[in-house]
Amino acid sequence: MGCSSSVKDSAVISYSPHAHHQAVRVNPRLLMSPGDNNDNRRSQEMRESISGYHEVPLLTLKQACHGLNIQNLDMYIKKAWNYSKNLRHGLTQDEQAAINLYTQQTPIYRLLNEALRKADGRSLSSWYGYLKLLLVALYKLPPYRGTVWRGVPHDLSTKYRKDDEHVWWSFGSCTSSLDILTSPNFLGASGVRTLFNIEVFDGRSVSKFSEFNAEDEILLLPGTYVRVVSEMKQSDGLHIIHLKQMEPPYFLLGPPGKVDRMPQQASQHHNRQNRSIDNEISTEEYETYEDDSKYQSNSTVESLSAFNTQIQLAKNISSDSEKATVLKHLLTNKKLSDQMIAGVVECVETMYSAKEKGDVLQLIAKRSGLSAKQFQVSVKGINGISNDGSKATTLKTFLLHEKFTVQHLDAVLSAAESMYSSGDKQSVFNDLICNRYLEARHFPSILNGIKEISNDSHKSSVLCKLAPKLPKNDANVRQAYLMAADSIYSSKDKAEATMAFVSDPEWTGSTKHQEYEFDDDYSTTQSMHLEK
To answer: What is the pTM of this model?
Structure first.
């Protein structure tokens, strides 16, 4: 691996004057480069340029970097390899080292992103091997959903107007900690600067693999599609721009191992049944769940292998509707094992369409032979649905499995809490609180979830329906209920929620209210209410 006189180690953060003058070692990637503002009109060219990496084989890190003309590259690779001996998240040492190499304070991340932003493809072709290894590693990590921050010491407000939509074709480094980005080592507290507040659903947390492991780095993948929600200017020169990651209106990029094709070509591609499947990424590396079912014979192993081949074929279909059709056909098999259902859910996660995701997951929920593990992995897949209406409908279908709901209540509540819509949350909790298998120990967690409903009327309504079912002699339940009721701002709604808890259920509607008297017959009364 040679050296290039045009690429020097010192040329790492030339666009970041704030970072240059600090003695403290900082992560320059958190400061956005002006070059990150791509021209959306060239999205088709960019997609075609980047998607070429799919055609290269999966290599070791050293092989993947062969041909990159970067000074001291051998040293950087060795450092990354040594840093990555403690394996995590099912990644290989090469995959972990690929992430670490990107995070090192070297020219590598900058040169890769510059190549990603060029539409001609020639600049990127030498990076295809490393890009594939890096993306394979990142796609093995769980998606990060939440608010992240990114900044730049310039005014970008004119390029990010309300309702504008942008495609970021390079990797985007963000942090989940606002304090880090606004510290003196980064943007500071004065001067012209832009702070991006971004709601994301498909980031990747790389802190455990990073040279800067204390900075809560979240990496946005190439092809991230965002919409400008709002823009605000403060008197001290700070511009705050609120962005929200969106499902793109047209196909951009798929995960590694998938040969990207335009939607109109998907049918032809799907019909090529004799096409050999790219087995560079072994099925075993992607298997997360051990199958405890009865399907453990040699014939079952062969069946699983054939099924995984079909799943890989489905991943290669770029059209979500056609991909969903294939998955729905696979789900007609009544004898799918836990691993097979996990494979279906993994394929669902490669879709963009919230509707198609929900439709397939609902089919899983309606399976008569659904197991506890299949329930768990499928409910976790609901988090990837970006539309709250589709998410609520899908989750409510799974709630019909009452015993599994109680068994995996944390996963259910996590899916419910990821919704923004107050009405959809109310609908989900209304169904959840009717579960016949709920016990006293379950209610505090449920009440904490209800507390996060933003609309006071919706929150009060759910609490009023739940109150008659609660074991009011349980101190933890009482405390959780009162905290949920106290989070209501509306006096009227708070009063209704409070009275529902302290009143005899049989007196609802009466002008006379008394504090509920706890006695030995309470459990009998509770059972009667649940049987109605």
So the answer is: 0.47
